[in-house]
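user: can you give me the structure for this one chain? tokens are fine.
assistant: on it. calling the predictor now.
[tool input]
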Amino acid sequence: MLNIGIIGCGKIAQRFIKGAHELDEVNVIACAARELNRAEQFAAKFEIEQAYGSYEEMLSQKDLDAVYIATPPFMHEEHIRLCLDHNKHVICEKPFVHDQKTVHALFEIAKDKGLILMEANKTIFTPTWVSIRKSIQEGKIGDVRYLEGSYTYRFPTANHWVFDPKRMGGGMMDVGVYPLTVALSLVGLNINEMKKMVMLNEQGSDDLTHMLLRFENGIMASVKGGIGVDTDNHFTIYGDLGKIRVPRFSKNPYYFLEVYGREEETVKLEFDSEFKFEIEHFAQCIQNGLSESPWMSEAMSAKIIELITTDEIV
């Protein structure tokens, strides 16, 4: 049994704990927030044994094995370091931290201590994307030539850290990370060329970023992320024999597979919480004594933040 504590009792943590409750091998035993009453309300709602108004106090709990960090991203580095200092495995929400150097420094600490550190990016772990990768590997759409993914929406208020570029705000950081991670998980991390067009808001962060990638193997990808423009959220993979398209790709339990010249097929998967599978993977990494996740590795997290924070690669 893996005993997990939660730092940050906001909306994303509520979705995480619903996924954790679907797993027999995981038990959320504690939660902590900056205000004790908020942690107590969260604990009561989700039947968590212990609530804390101090992160350090929760981390001192001896039977706590791992921590899920769900605080705003500009706080992630501080909270990851705090958890690692207390010898806890860590799964931290995306976007991970603000630069590559910090990614490598934190993973070095974790590996020196024999701890798992993993960026939480739920999409690539769902049965939908496991099935899609299998379909591609089986050659159902032939050789992949081009990927196109978009995740944008209109954030409901401008008075929020998500618009502050100094606090890891902006469209690519907030949600563009989803299609970018999917593209990298499918094709790899070797990129020869990257270009961007950016639409900035008054606060100086990106309302919309359109990123174009050319991988070492010649495959191209188009990735969009935004918090000021509401586009059609989807991911489509084009091969020379067919294509796979996924509406609402970050959590959808189905996708469409078309072999050119044949009728499109709907592939349906069944699951409730899309968070369940990243938690299960995290727990398995710890149980199997791995040094890092083979899917959300140090190299993956470093490449994601490199591409988000770099203007172009030529």
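assistant: here you go. Residues 4 and 106 are 20 Å apart (CA to CA). The longest strand covers residues 191-200.
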